[in-house]
UniProtKB/TrEMBL annotation:
InterPro entries: DjlA_N, TerB-like
Name of this protein: TerB family tellurite resistance protein
Co-chaperone DjlA N-terminal domain: residues covered: 23-140
Length: 146
């Protein structure tokens, strides 16, 4: 099911993702960060559902389906370096900051900041080309919002 998208992600120079593929890849990145502490909690799944419903104008049923597809893709996806590189090529900088905000929402969803979640978020921000300052400001905005 995800073979074409994964092939795009694995190319030495990733090709641009169509909107559906970019949506799936971004959701899979949210899943990846939620799973990084080996405790993929219901609250994190719910947060992902709400983020993607709002971001993509989906009802909750559509958001759950997209998250479930992203869970399957994330399990097959390449390492975070290639995964985020493809997203970087497909998404404008301002939208990448919104991605970092969404990642922070997932990290903060269970009320605990885990070192593994922080590490993968820092790596993802760097690979997405988002500065440390912009990532820290995104975290602060999300902490205030939650």
């Amino acid at each position: 099911m995800f073979k074409d998208l994964l092939n795009k992600l694995l190319q030495p120079i990733p090709s641009a993702l169509d909107p559906q593929d970019a949506r799936l890849a971004l959701t899979a990145l949210l899943v990846r960060i939620a799973r990084s502490d080996h405790n993929y909690a219901d609250v994190e799944q719910d947060r992902i559902d709400r983020i993607i419903a709002a971001r993509y104008g989906l009802d909750m049923g559509g958001a759950i389906i997209l998250r479930e597809q992203a869970e399957a893709m994330e399990a097959e996806a390449p390492d975070t370096v290639r995964f985020t590189r493809a997203i970087k090529e497909a998404v404008a900088y301002e939208d990448r900051i919104a991605v970092i905000e969404a990642l922070w929402q997932v990290v903060l969803a269970d009320g605990e900041r885990d070192d593994s979640e922080d590490a993968i978020l820092r790596l993802s921000a760097n690979l997405l080309g988002v500065s440390d300052v912009d990532s820290a400001q995104a975290r602060q905005r999300m902490e205030r919002a939650l």
